[in-house]
């Protein structure tokens, strides 16, 4: 008996099989490209991604065929919704959170119901990144597609639906649409009316770990799964990652170093909306009952290293691939030991708190003819981390304390990146034995939903193991505090100019 966790991200998907003791039996990954039909548009080819998802499921099922899967669950990025037919066919691409379409509809929400009332209902700070403005754009600019769509599904629910489950979503992902009521745990009639989105275009909202069906027999045979595998509702990738990292009690936070960078603190009391809104903080249901999470996030993270790889290290990347090596290990080895004198504004993609700016752009200040590639890479990583150092003050202002960061995602494998983070933030950051926490969190939910485990939080505490703790260097932290002050001057100086660009 084993459990299958599936993680659908912006640039890649993973599948992992976990046994009843929390040990990975198999793990597979596939990468895909963001589609950019026009400037400022960003889509995923949903049909291509579904094919990649099937490939990773089939790969791990083959690798762990001696221990058949009994249940699966899916975690995914938020916001992006794919139109599907009643016959389980994909009808079009999904618009990603970094897609600029829908600005005018977000502006309309600022008037009705208004930013404050929206936050009181939904818990999110108004922005273009969410699903509702993009659904409204599709309704008005692609009316035939909107009419033909049986449902618009978030990715975790989409994969469950295509596998044979009912069209459903959990509360954490429903929250990412701006159409969800945080207090009732269901779609908000007021917000649906404000955006003009019919309820029958949306999936049913269920708790994480609810059973939503079983894998279609034909697909089970095609993918190498046993028949009768239960499909369990998963959740937002940040929440499932928190579960898989053991961030299941107040005082802990995820420091997610993936395609996007996201800090996720957890707490057990719903704080007042006005305080959270003033601090620019969202509120969302955790996938663990009785807990909530908030986010500090930036669309720039591992994606900017991928940009460096593809623009400045093409030859090294090809050579590393030929050797079966990881080019990122080589690039990170080039980082200088001391802090750089570069000041990088990491607005290479839309930003969440504290700036909430989707019209800015990245800036690298302080370049010299003698600047090395390693200095440039470290400067970019420093800039991304300064962004979160500034944001930590928002967490404190909202009454949320973080005593320990738990690193997750691909960047968590880098000692240099973790130490840099600890030195800038001035707090310890730990590495876990399992870095693929989203997959593990989804597998835990599959176990809870199918009756293998009794409690998600207790299971996570038993499974998660710390393997390394990076303590901040006091002297290096002092140097970074000086540079942080310089960093904080850059955005106010350039904001209007960058908007003109």
What's the topology here?
Blueprint: E1 2-8, E2 12-19, E3 24-31, E4 43-44, H1 46-63, E5 69-76, E6 81-84, E7 94-95, H2 103-122, H3 131-141, H4 143-148, E8 151-154, H5 155-163, E9 168-170, H6 171-174, E10 180-181, E11 186-187, H7 189-195, E12 204-206, E13 211-214, H8 217-223, E14 230-236, H9 237-244, E15 252-257, E16 261-267, H10 273-278, E17 284-285, E18 292-293, E19 296-298, H11 302-312, H12 314-323, H13 327-333, E20 343-345, E21 363-365, H14 373-397, E22 404-408, H15 415-425, E23 429-432, H16 437-449, H17 456-463, E24 466-470, H18 474-500
Parallel strand pairs: 1-5, 5-14, 9-12, 15-22, 22-23
Antiparallel strand pairs: 1-2, 2-3, 4-7, 6-8, 10-11, 13-14, 15-16, 16-18, 16-19, 17-18, 20-21, 23-24
| Count of extended strands | 24
CATH level-3 fold name of the largest domain: Nucleotidyltransferase, domain 5
Global mean pLDDT: 94
Q: In the CATH classification, which architecture of the largest domain applies?
A: 2-Layer Sandwich
> Which strand-content bin applies to the residues?
15-25%
Q: List unreliable stretches of 5+ residues.
A: none
Structural class: alpha+beta
Q: What is the subunit organization of this protein?
A: single chain
Please count the helical segments.
18
Structural Rg: 22 Å
Assign a percent range to the helix content: 40-55%
């Amino acid at each position: 008996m084993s459990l299958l966790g599936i993680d659908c991200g912006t640039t890649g998907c993973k599948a992992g099989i976990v046994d009843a003791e929390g040990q990975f039996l198999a793990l597979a990954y596939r990468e895909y490209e963001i589609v950019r039909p026009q400037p400022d548009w960003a889509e995923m080819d949903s049909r291509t991604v579904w094919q990649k998802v099937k490939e990773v499921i089939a790969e791990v099922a083959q690798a762990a065929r001696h221990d058949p899967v009994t249940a699966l669950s899916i975690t995914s990025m938020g916001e992006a919704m794919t139109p599907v037919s009643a016959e389980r066919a994909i009808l079009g691409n999904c618009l990603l959170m970094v897609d600029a379409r829908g600005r005018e509809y977000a502006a309309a929400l600022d008037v009705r119901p208004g930013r404050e009332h929206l936050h009181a209902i939904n818990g999110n700070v108004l922005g273009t990144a969410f699903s509702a403005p993009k659904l409204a754009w599709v309704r008005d600019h692609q009316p035939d597609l909107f009419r033909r769509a049986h449902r618009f599904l978030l990715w975790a629910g989409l994969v469950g639906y295509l596998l044979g489950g009912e069209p459903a979503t959990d509360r954490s992902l429903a929250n990412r649409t701006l159409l969800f009521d945080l207090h009732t745990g269901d779609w908000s009639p007021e917000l649906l009316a404000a955006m003009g989105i019919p309820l029958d275009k949306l999936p049913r909202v269920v708790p994480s770990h609810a059973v939503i069906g079983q894998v279609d027999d034909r697909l089970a045979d095609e993918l190498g799964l046993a028949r009768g595998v239960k499909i369990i509702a998963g959740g937002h990738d940040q929440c499932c990652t928190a579960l898989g990292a053991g961030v299941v009690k107040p005082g802990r936070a995820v420091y997610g170093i993936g395609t996007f960078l996201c800090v996720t603190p957890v707490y057990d009391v719903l704080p007042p909306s006005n305080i959270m809104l003033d601090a620019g903080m969202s509120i969302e249901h955790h996938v663990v009952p009785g807990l909530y999470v908030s986010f500090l996030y930036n669309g720039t993270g591992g994606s900017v290293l991928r940009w460096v790889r593809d623009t400045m290290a093409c030859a090294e990347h090809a050579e590393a691939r030929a050797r079966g090596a990881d080019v990122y290990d080589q690039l990170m080895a080039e980082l200088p030991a001391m802090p750089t004198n570069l000041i990088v504004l990491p607005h290479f993609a839309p930003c969440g708190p504290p700036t909430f700016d989707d019209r800015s752009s990245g800036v690298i200040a302080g370049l010299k003819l003698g600047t090395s590639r390693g200095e440039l890479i470290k400067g970019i990583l420093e800039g991304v981390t300064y962004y979160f150092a500034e944001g930590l003050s928002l967490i404190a202002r909202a009454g949320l304390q973080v005593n320990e960061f738990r690193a997750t995602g691909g960047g968590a494998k880098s000692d240099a990146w973790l130490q840099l983070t600890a030195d800038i933030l001035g707090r310890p950051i730990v590495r876990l034995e399992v870095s693929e926490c989203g997959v593990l969190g989804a597998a835990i939910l599959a176990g809870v939903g199918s009756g293998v485990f009794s409690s998600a939080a207790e299971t996570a505490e038993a499974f998660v193991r710390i393997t390394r703790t990076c303590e901040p260097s006091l002297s290096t932290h002092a140097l970074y505090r000086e540079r942080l002050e310089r960093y904080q001057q850059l955005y106010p100086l350039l904001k209007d100019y960058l908007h003109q660009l």
